[in-house]
């Protein structure tokens, strides 16, 4: 099992023609053929999302597209992949931050009855679900 860190994904998605990009492509192709077993974490996905906006200055739709492409890489094990996919759908249609969308899905999917938050936008949606 190989853990894939943030910078590997970034080199893959930000195709800069570098040797690192080529290495990332090779790893993902091998995993797609079943030759390698890959895993990553939710934290890595959120870090990618943040870097795409803060460093690469990508807009909301481009960030969604890249993260969706990552989530479609089914040869990479990602815990709670379905939570992340649902979070992207909410993020696309609201003004909530992606981490709030994830927390909202986590709240809903785990049938939690109450959320302690000072975030007014999030609290409003939570109250509708409760």
TrEMBL record:
<keyword id="KW-0812">Transmembrane</keyword>
<keyword id="KW-0472">Membrane</keyword>
<dbReference type="InterPro" id="IPR029060">
    <property type="entry name" value="PIN-like_dom_sf"/>
</dbReference>
<keyword id="KW-1133">Transmembrane helix</keyword>
<dbReference type="InterPro" id="IPR002716">
    <property type="entry name" value="PIN_dom"/>
</dbReference>
<protein>
    <recommendedName>
        <fullName>PIN domain-containing protein</fullName>
    </recommendedName>
</protein>
<feature type="transmembrane region" description="Helical">
    <location>
        <begin position="38"/>
        <end position="56"/>
    </location>
</feature>
<dbReference type="Pfam" id="PF01850">
    <property type="entry name" value="PIN"/>
</dbReference>
<feature type="domain" description="PIN">
    <location>
        <begin position="1"/>
        <end position="124"/>
    </location>
</feature>
């Amino acid at each position: 099992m190989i853990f894939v860190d943030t910078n590997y994904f970034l080199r893959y998605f930000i195709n800069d023609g570098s040797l690192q990009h080529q290495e990332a492509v090779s790893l993902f192709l091998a995993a797609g053929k079943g030759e390698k077993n890959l895993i990553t974490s939710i934290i890595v996905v959120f870090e990618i999302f943040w870097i795409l906006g803060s460093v690469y200055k990508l807009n909301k739709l481009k960030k969604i597209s890249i993260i969706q492409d990552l989530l479609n890489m089914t040869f990479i094990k990602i815990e709670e992949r379905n939570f992340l996919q649902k979070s992207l759908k909410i993020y696309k249609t609201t003004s909530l931050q992606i981490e709030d969308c994830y927390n909202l899905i986590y709240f809903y999917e785990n049938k939690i009855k109450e959320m302690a938050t000072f975030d007014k936008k999030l609290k409003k949606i939570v109250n509708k679900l409760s």
